[in-house]
Amino acid sequence: TYHSIHDIPPVPEIETIDRCGDRIITASCQAMGRDINYGCIISEGVPLNEFAFMRLGKLIITKEFQGTVIIDESQSRKKTFSNLTRAAAYYIYFFAKNAKGVSPLSEPKSIICG
C-alpha cells in the first residue's frame, strides 16, 4: 500500500475488468492511499506498446498509433466505459497521480467487449 504524499505514486495494480451489459466495460485498480487520483486508458483493437508513454503528467500518443484510445482521468479507481464496439478487444491500463507526479502505466489487461 502506498502511503507517502511526498513521492510519485507507484504503478497501480489492476483489480477487476468486467463486461457489464451491452457494450460496457468496467475496470478498477487497487487503492493506494489518500491523495491519489487514478486514471485509466483503454485502447481498442491494439495495445499501446511503444507508441505511448507518460511524460510530465501528459499522455503522448504518436501519429503512428492507429487505434482508438479513451482516457478517463476522473479521480475514482473504478471506471466505466460505455458505447464501445461490440466484439472488439480492449486493452486496459491504469496510472496514478498525486501532487508530485504521475506513475508509469500498468501492464495492460485485455477483454473482448460484449
Key words describing this protein structure:
single chain, 114 residues, five-stranded antiparallel β-sheet, three-stranded antiparallel β-sheet, globular
Walkthrough of the structure:
The structure is a single chain. With 114 residues, this protein is mainly beta. 0% of the residues lie in helices and 46% in strands. The protein contains no helices and ten strands. Strands 3, 6, 8, 9 and 10 form a five-stranded antiparallel β-sheet that branches. The chain has a three-stranded antiparallel β-sheet with strand order 1-2-7, with no helix packed on it. Strands 4-5 form a two-stranded antiparallel ribbon. It is globular and about 40 Å long.
Produce the secondary structure layout.
Elements: E1 14-19, E2 25-29, E3 37-44, E4 52-55, E5 58-61, E6 68-72, E7 78-81, E8 89-98, E9 101-102, E10 109-112
Antiparallel strand pairs: 1-2, 2-7, 3-6, 3-8, 4-5, 8-9, 8-10
Low-confidence stretches: none
Q: Please give the oligomerization state of what you see.
A: single chain
| Shape label | globular
Measured distance between first and last alpha carbons? 33 Å
Specify Rg, calculated over alpha carbons: 14 Å
Short description:
By secondary structure, the protein is an all-beta fold. It has strands spanning 14-19, 25-29, 37-44, 52-55, 58-61, 68-72, 78-81, 89-98, 101-102, 109-112.
